[in-house]
Amino acid sequence: MTNLRLRYQTVEFGNTDIHLCTLRDNQEFDDPQGIAEKLGISSATWPIFGIVWPSSLVLAHYISDYDTGTKRILEIGCGMALTSLMLNKKHADITATDYHPEVGKFLLRNTVLNQDKPIAYQQTDWANHDDSLGLFDLIIGSDLLYEDEHVELLANFINDHAKPHCEMILVDPGRGNKNKLSHKMIEFGFSSVHLKPVHTEYLINPFKGHILKFVR
After folding, report:
1. pLDDT of residue 2
2. For every residue of the chain, which 3-state class applies, written as one string?
3. Mean pLDDT confidence for 61-78
4. pTM of the entire structure?
């Protein structure tokens, strides 16, 4: 990470502080061996993982007040993994995943920065049916519905890792694919509710998206 300009910040959840090392901005890029390029990640999309986006903040704040109990939790497309780091601070059973090859390095760095135990992590593709993740009680994610063709891949990935009784919480900033995902999850036996987040004073601009909740 020596060729990248970085930023340090702290996100507060009541009395809980989560410290983050992120990319300085979404103009950073470093793929000297072409590892990300071989995965289909272009130089334009490479930095997206390394920024704390509004949807990530909405998810983390929403989950910070959620009763996770003893649930086994999976964060999909975690990026900077703010929610995973916050849940780890609370000793929840959290596993994080992402496709980007740099995410695991930043996750480890930020876990050490917060002086917490390592978070279970697996780099995986939504089309991968051979991972060792297992099944989960609660599946979470933010800003995952980029492309129309990704909706079915995401829905199938979620269904493959959902226990028979499972909750799912996704935050979508309004990319136009939430209804398509909802229809697919209903086919898998989930109920679907779209909520507008409240108390988003921690955001600079109003949030135009929704919290998608699915229960089976």
Report:
1. 59
2. CCCCCEEEEEEEECCEEEEEEEECCCCCCCCCCCHHHHCCCCCCCHHHHHCCCHHHHHHHHHHHCCCCCCCEEEEECCCCCHHHHHHHHCCCEEEEEECCCCHHHHHHHHHHHCCCCCCEEEECCCCCCCCCCCCEEEEEEECCCCCCCHHHHHHHHHHHCEEEEEEEEEEECCCCCHHHHHHHHHHCCCEEEEECCCCCCCCCCCCCCEEEEEEC
3. 96
4. 0.96
